[in-house]
Amino acid sequence: MTEFKPTILAFCCNWCSYAGADLAGVSRLQMPTNVHVVRVMCSASVKPEYVMKAISQGIDGVLVLGCHIGDCHYMTGNHRTAKRIPVVQKILKDVGIDEKRVRLDWVSAAEGEKFQKVITEFVDEVAKLGPNPLREVAF
Amino acid sequence: MPRIGVFICHCGHNIASTVSVEEVAKFAATLPGVVIADHNLYSCSEEGLNSIRKSIEQNKLDRVVVAACTPRTHEPLFRSVCEQAGVNKYLFEFVNIREHCSWIHAKEPSSATEKAKRLVAMGVSKAALLEPQTEGESNVIPAALVIGGGLAGLRATASLAAQGIETHLIEKEPRLGGLLNDITTLAPYSESADTLLQELVDEVRGSKRAHIHLNSKLRGLTGFVGNFKATLDEAGKKKEIEIGAIIVATGANELQPEGEYGYGSVPGVVTQLEFERTLKRGEKPGDTVFIQCVGSRQPGREYCSRICCNTSLKNALKVLEAGGTATIIHRDIMSYGTVWEEMYRKASEKGVRFIRYTLNDIPHVRSHASGTAVDVFDETLGERIHLDANRVVLATPLISQKDSAEVGKLLKVPRDKHGFFLEAHVKLRPVEFATDGVFICGTARWPSSVRETLSQALGAAAKAAIPIKRGKVVIESITAWADPDKCAACGNCVASCPYEAIEILEQDGKRVAKVNETQCKGCGTCVAACPNDAMQQRGFTTRQLSAMIDSLVKHALEESP
Q1: Are B35 and B10 a contacting pair, CB within 8 Å?
Q2: Cα four-point dihedral sign B344, B459, B197, B281
Q3: Residue pair B210/B219 in contact by the 8 Å Cβ criterion
Q4: A65 interaction partners in chain B (CB closer than 8 Å)
Q5: d(C-alpha B176, C-alpha B506), whole Å
Q6: What local confidence, expressed as pLDDT, does residue B560 receive?
Q7: B440 touches B484 (CB < 8 A)
Q8: Which of A71, B62, B178, B218 could join A67 in a cystine, given CB atoms 3.0 to 4.6 angstroms apart?
Q9: Cβ distance A17 to A103 under 8 Å?
Q10: Which residues contact A50 (CB under 8 A, 6 or more apart)?
């Protein structure tokens, strides 16, 4: 049996975490190949529906990464992200999906190493959870 | 049906040594809407750009996808090629397969190639749904702010003011000049540092356009390129100024090596800057031992501070002139370039002694009946050597300012792990931050010599003058709008907007949300707050992002379960 490689979607804000991901690249920090970054302007623009949609269609894990609290390019955008994502996690839990499939974290433009750490940890964590149970329903 | 062209970049070996570019291009050609998929050695080169332009014209493309590096540096370039070929620049989509793929998966070429395919598929699915946009313009406030009144800040201020730009220079200390105040002469030609400083201060003070704020700190900043509002604390009083561009010239500081090499406990042990001060006071140096790389090029602070070797060479020659002996204990002499290497040769010829040490066996500094003593293991002789000295000078590195984190936070600009500021791109966008309208120069960016600092300051001033001289800045069309048919006027968007850019207005007898586009900064917070999917952000619509998710599901799960 081959090792399970989860499929992961990551929303990164343009100003901090996307730049942090770029810095990780420039620094040649190696990490698993399962994560697909989608650039958004602010983590607060990530609709809860996107996360639900990805999970309900069988994506194994969703990461939402933004600027640290207090550093948001749009002043208070990430305060909203910080409130919204836990709600998404709670809804998932209520319907029997492990809420650890969704993770919110903060990565600044200078934190290439943190980006690598978050990616590596999350991939490990989701790999341990196994395939998204909705995969079979979705297909 | 859209006509999409996909261009995959080799980036020389940067992408192509890991990702099979040909395979990705072949795959891209099979995606819906794609009429041509090509690959270039360097898409951003003149040749690469020309071939993309030709392809757009020949294949009558109406959407362009480039899979290469990061949009944060190269998007404007490819967008302009689209425009030149008659395609609206908002019909361009960037896929990052270098920073986000080849560079971080160097040892997994086949997985990286598969991932690059999925990323391209996601980009293509978004591109198919892109819409042309027209850009707005906004006026630029014809004034600039320079933070830091040291060499870099003074030079930048003088240059901006000479161009006729109202320039506010803020300095946290009660005097201008920063570290330059403590320096005797400038290597290698022995100009007086005081003369240089005085000339610059006179130029700034003599200009009607330059406004000096001493004892001042930046406390708050809002706005964007062309329209910033800064809150200053000027000697305890709050002050607000409006500016179009900002230059960060906050400088650096010398590391105080507390407890190391007898610093603070053995008499006669000083840092380089303290040594400069004694020379400036006219004190005779006597026999002097310099220890290089104190606190740098070692675990925890790996960088080379770039200026210390040359400073020690300069001061060792001064010691010889004053009749003392000079010994430089070093790990490598970094006298790069022409003039510094010349100075190194001169120092050797005139009798400065050089002893090489390693981190495994560092010099030991102690008190001695006749002054200070240094014991050092000479690598070349293979012997332990004893040196008597009147003074031991510790060449410590420049380190970032204590408040650089605070400045970085206010301006939302990144710093590296040592606290120095990071420019957008060292070669493509030097002295610029990724944030438009904010620039960087001098030792706040990295330890640099007086010459380098002056060049950077002039560069930053020239760049900062661009938006101010143009008088207008283009506002990227990533603003939000509400679909009146779907809007139920619930007001969630109004409450969520950090810029108070949304109002509920009456339109055709119905209450709907209306976005004020000059106030909207394009964060998209309102989009996520809208329960009816009425609110959309240009370039990031819910359809476009949903299509990307669908594409990932299709290519990662359905086709390779």
Answers
A1: no
A2: negative
A3: no
A4: none
A5: 56
A6: 57
A7: no
A8: A71
A9: no
A10: A11, A62, B545, B546, B549
The helix (H) or strand (E) run that includes residue A82 is: helix A77-94
- What pLDDT is recorded for position B561? 44
- The dihedral built from the CA positions of residue B367, B370, B371 and B375, taken in this order, carries a sign that is negative
Distance between CA atoms of residues A13 and A67, nearest Å:
7
Assess contact for B354 and B348: CB atoms under 8 A.
Answer: yes
Tokens linked to B372: 């200070």
Sign of CA dihedral A87, A88, A91, A97: negative
Domains along the sequence of chain B with CATH: 1-134 (3.40.50), 143-253+399-473 (3.50.50.60), 256-396 (3.50.50.60), 479-537 (3.30.70.3270)
Tens-digit pLDDT profile for residues B352-382: 999 999 999 999 999 988 789 999 999 888 9
Placement of tokens 């270098």 in the chain: B98
Judging contacts by C-beta atoms under 8 Å, the chain B residues touching residue A84 are: 528
Residues of A in contact with B542 (CB under 8 A): 47, 49
Task: Answer yes or no: CATH 2.60.60 is held by domain A8-138.
Answer: no
Single-letter residue type at B54: K
The shortest CB-CB distance from A22 to any of B70, B528, B546 is to B70
Tens of pLDDT, residue by residue over B129-147, are 999 999 988 899 999 999 9
How far is CA B505 from its chain centroid? 42
Point out the residue among B100, B417, B525 whose CB comes nearest to the CB of A25.
B100
